[in-house]
Structure prediction request, 513 residues.
Amino acid sequence: MLSTRLGLSPLLHSSKQASSALSRLAVPRTTSTPLPRLRLTTVPSATPRRSFCSSHTADDKDRSKKDITMYLQETHDKVFENNKSWAAEQVAKDPDFFKKLAAGQNPEYLWIGCSDSRIPAEQITGLQPGDAFVHRNIANLVCNTDLNVMSVIEYAVKHLQVKHIVVCGHYGCGGVKAAMTPKDLGLMNPWLRNIRDVYRLHEKELDAIADEEARYERLVELNVYEQCRNVVKTAALQQSYAENGFPIIHGWVFNFRDGILKDLNVDFKTILKDIQKIYNLTN
Amino acid sequence: MSADNTFHYALSSNNAWAGYKAHQNPQFFPKLAGGQSPEILWIGCSDSRCPETTILGMQPGDVFVHRNIANIISPTDINTTAVIEYAVANLKVKHVVLCGHSACGGAAAALSDARVGGVLDTWLLPLKTVRFNHAEELDAITDEKERIMRIAQLNVEAGIKVLMNNATIREAIAERGLEVHGVFFDISCGRIKELGCGTAHAGKGDHVVRGKHGQLVFGQDGEAAIAAAQ
Prediction:
């Protein structure tokens, strides 16, 4: 991937590369997989359970301050130790790895995903550092008034000229779940409102699904679909596509149960044609 | 060759990765599906060369992530704020890590007087403010790469100040000892270093307990290990 990344023709990905990546993933790397992970001497089990609106447990109060300090220090230190092993490993594989990386980035992908810790974009797709420009927020939303995500799209499309934009959602999304809950969530309200709006756009279809779990999963998919549409509505995308024929948009959903990405086969060209009736920004 | 090949590359890689992970540990995905309890909230740059979970040597489920252009913490940005709220108040992460990096395009743009265009100039405004607040120091640096690196570090320090004033973070620091760290990723060597801003840097070294290398364990309970350590 790296040589392609540095080459002049980012679109040319041979099947040979794909198969080498497959073998890279399929064969356990004895020196590196899994990377050493520090075992903690103190305990996550006594920490507050993470559910929406969880509260502190009695265990928490019992734990001495010293324990907490030690625990925090360890969880903190392990990151630096892991990072050192990772850096050393890359240099062992390719002494010029970081030199090449430092020379610049030329990513093929813009990945817009959820902040959820279980979906590290690069690991689940086998992409290497330098391959994917990444924005992650709560429930992978693309809102037109959010300067944060709009800046990311504009930079990725106009300046980095990415070829693919992936909006990746996931089943079991806490943000989507929260948006289906009739509750005042304070600061989160304005953000989650966007998901409630997705529900309203597809109210008829969703209301017809009797099973709550199935309805929730469908909302996850529809949310990805609507965010893809929102990406298509941007001036950066429309202008770049008219001029260069890229980037193209993909909607994916990650499933924790088997680790597989599902392609929603978003019909990019139809969406573009459809939205340009009202949102045409190509001048 | 069509653009579809790049696209299929990632999807086929994912298939192989999922198969490999499940083979390595059949409980991996069932546990992942059970929920997340990350200990770290990572706020970093969208730059493709900074894949947080990979460079930290961590696994899915370990790091809650927000990445934006130039890892800017803008106090009224509802996107970042919602991520912080969810991670700190609901998931109760133990560490908030703000990470800048060398050769940052956003930092370079802030040092230039040219207009980037579109919405980017507005987004980069906090970084421009950093530039003008530290004009003397930055102007004195003759090497451009060094200057870009320095402003990126100052940007982390400025971001940490905003984070430390976030109401949810303040409460979590007071109530349960949440730690906030400013760090810097040097792309030319792959190493992360601490910038010495944020919480709990004064007493560093007093109660350092180095962990031992071990197995990848999700939801481990370490009660026995505590007793042994004490």
Remarks:
- Residues 202-230 of chain B have pLDDT under 50 and may be disordered.
- Chain B touches chain A through 117 residues (CB under 8 Å).
- The longest strand of chain B covers residues 179-186.
